Amino acid sequence: MPLPDFKNRSLLLRALTHRSFVNEHQGAGEDNERLEFLGDAVLDFLVGAFLYSRYPEMDEGGLTRVRAALVNNDMLATLAAAAGIGEQLRLGKGEAESGGRQRLTLLGAALEAVLGAYYLDSGLEAVRAYVEPMFGAAAEQIILSDADMDAKSRFQEWAQAVHAQTPRYEPVSVAGPDHNREYTVEVLIGDESFGTGSGPNKQAATQAAAREALRRAGLA
Fold first, then answer.
1. Which residues lie across from 197 on neighbouring strands?
2. Same-domain status, 21 and 130
3. Annotated active-site positions, please?
């Protein structure tokens, strides 16, 4: 789905402006971090309200798990890439040359910033009309595939059933500047590695490692 139409294009421009661009261009204006904060709050509310209405039989725990699966960074980055956000991001030279346009953390954050900007531009109902078609089919797929259970819990259940052991997650590395850290974690059962994963924090990296382990175990 393409980006929404903005009445105030300067809001969209700000939503697509990364801190690295502002640092390298005097007078570039504000970066997108405040809009990201706003968009995250708007998105959480709208996805929660959508799930509450769409699935009246689902309990609070199920709603929370499905919402988490819908708004996690992997999902947001996938939607951002489909909307062409990566190509439109305003990045500093170093960030662009190091693959910033494909970096999942930047893509997910930029989509949240765009939604925050669209809320300021056109209001809550416009954002609702934009996001609900994106998340409707995804929610159905998550529920059907039981993907709403987090990957770490699913892999732990499998490991305990098959290997009678609990997986452990070991840090591998931390890279990147303070404002854009990338953590890498390895998941092991005994001495055997089942995969690694990366993310903007240890929790996200752990979930990514667990998803890779599930794939290697033939469970995803």
1. 185
2. yes
3. 40, 112
